[in-house]
Amino acid sequence: MALKIAMIGAGSIGFTRRLMHDLLTVKELQYTTFAFMDISERNLNMVTQLAQRDIAHNQLPAQVIATTDQREAISDADYVICMIRQGGLDAFALDIDIPLKYGIDQCVGDTICAGGIMYGQRTIPVLLNICKDIREVAKPGALFLNYSNPMAMNTWACNQYGGVPTIGLCHGVQGAHWQIVRVIELWAKKEGLIAEDELLHRRDVDVVAAGINHQTWFVKAQWRGMDMIPRLLELFEAHPEYVQTEKVRIDVLRRFGYYSTESNGHLSEYLPWYRKRVDEIGQWIDLSRWINGETGGYLRVCTEGRNWFETDFPNWMQEEPPSITAERRSEEHGSYIIEALETGRTYRGHFNIPNKGHITNLPDGCVIEIPGYVDKNGINMPVVGDLPLACAATCSASVRVQQMGMEAAVHGDVTLLKQAMLHDPLTGAVCNPEEVWQMTDELLVAQAQWLPNYAADIDAAKARLAAHEQNGTRVQLRDTKGAARLHVKSVEEMAKDKAEARANASAADKGKMTKAAAH
Fold first, then answer.
1. How many CB atoms lie within 10 A of CB 224?
2. Annotated active-site residue in 21, 102, 119, 171
């Protein structure tokens, strides 16, 4: 099968190389042409060199072409995979640092909350431009696979305004599924149901997760025919690691009755209860890994990973390339979807799609994350029905924030953007309306270079900020570095543990790999 797969944002070393390797483990896909595209020629060249060397080492017929021309990459593509971070780490830092001055302490800032909403304002116009190129120059019916956050807002915009069938892909369900497997495994050993040296696999525990991306809930979990949902609180509270690292998720499980797919740090910033008081944040998070709640944790590991990769790249080119084998294939959905569509081998995963009656107590049109099946007939999404009411209420609040944020980005609507910020659960718990209005103006001015959709509004935002300064009506800012902000390691510090630094730089899922730095 001589496919062409365009990878937009291919300077992302972790995702690009990982997804290419995954696809090349499938025999029928080994003649694929990968069109790598990135706006950073330097990053693109480094990743391309590694990818071409990997293909040559494994004696595969695939080829990689690299270009900074998006339209050229997408031309005649069968599939387009997106993993861009619009504005890069510079914009990401502003997503974390400016809201922090207003008391909004984020761990990740890529989904909702102040950082995630601004991330959507930068990303959605770029995605709609990608959709335009797909409509005009890709092969008819080309599928758009989006890995870029904020997942729900982005996928919603592409499907509603981009005119391209778009599926959003995330690995949160897989990671949490493994956690459920581990707590069942520990309990089963104590109960004498499995041997002490026996390990359970993810396929041993059947699950259904449903909700919205990063707020998806395990509504079914079965092992050996037993319904494990009523037992999960007891099992998680008995797990020696998770009881320390997943305090927010366990507390929500205690109060809702259902376990969230997303990490402790992620979930804590989508809800109004756990990060609104600086002196209480510490009791809900854990610093053994950034993803457990560290202030700006994802920004830190991304910064360290990029700095290490750029410094250590010559050494990457000297080491022996990895073998591309089925045993090394990751759990990222992308390669399995393409394999299923092209070969007919059925794949079941959890995907982000527009709601069309699939979850009956969330609005039609919003982007939901539910189980789906893929084969040669396409991507087939069954009806889940109602979410439990507490889960639905939490998702519903976020859905309307996502909708306002998405519409604001598409139309460049400052008022709607501020209203999205105002209704965000954590932002609203921390800030009063005037603080929200001023913070949004500050974010718009600081990120103007990545916001062509707001070009006509930046001067007015600057004028409002200046008037507040002149009139003495500027709201009081916090002088804080966050409740749990850790040091960004220098290249010299990372060199003390080169294996860990390289694992971080190459990881597609940084939540698994990277431990927090010491203070």
1. 11
2. 171
